[in-house]
Amino acid sequence: MVGRMGAEASKERITFSFGENWRSYLDTVTEDAVGRARSDIEGWLGRDGVAGKTVLDIGSGSGIHSLCFHVLGARELRSFDLDPYSVESTRLMWRKAGAPANWTVERGSVLDREFVAGLGKYEVVYSWGVLHHTGSMWEAIANACSLVAPGGLFLIALYVKGPKYPEHLALKQKYNRASKLGKKVMVWKFILNIMRDRRRAGLNPLKWRERDGRGMDTYYDVVDWLGGLPYEVASKEEVVAFFNERGFALEKLTELPEGGNNVYLFSLPR
Q: For residue 257, what are the domain limits?
């Protein structure tokens, strides 16, 4: 059911650009946001988990996490995204870092087998909230798995499967069909719901835009959530079984309710 609906979603008219959204986000990025993103990576991989390693960022988006991998001492860093605005955003981060020779930024698709075959293998592969938007999630994950070197790690985040999938899919389709004004109205309705939930939880509703632990911004996260087609989901059991079949072991997992991303850290034995 989910696979079929995910395939149908990929055929919807998509009027949203993840890259354009994250390019706008870069105009608001602070050093604090980059620091939060860096701390998140360190929390998953360890303070010395990146230094001297080869790193691949699949679907680099805004580019701030690629920047963090560079700052954390990656020996070789390769970032790619299909969306040209994301490529532009990541290149801005690359230039901010001084255009280092050991960091490559390019446009490419994880579903392009020829492109993937030419990437090589990496000690750390990172793909946060990307592969469920490709229109062929399991193929994308399988291709990404092939890029992990023996002894390497794969840090991946995927939307959680649950009973609200049809409702969420319909909301995204509605957003993509809406006019420019209609999209803005939907975004602010979503934000008003966040403010309401904060008030009910005893939190200041006016601080709805607080940065999250990854250094991202609530406003741009909302736009990303509403516009995000194609849209597929996976249960923890499905993801773990898929990776186990390919020889990976689960090292760490953070679970969120439906609508959020489960975050998995897998290792590939030598």
A: 2-162+229-267
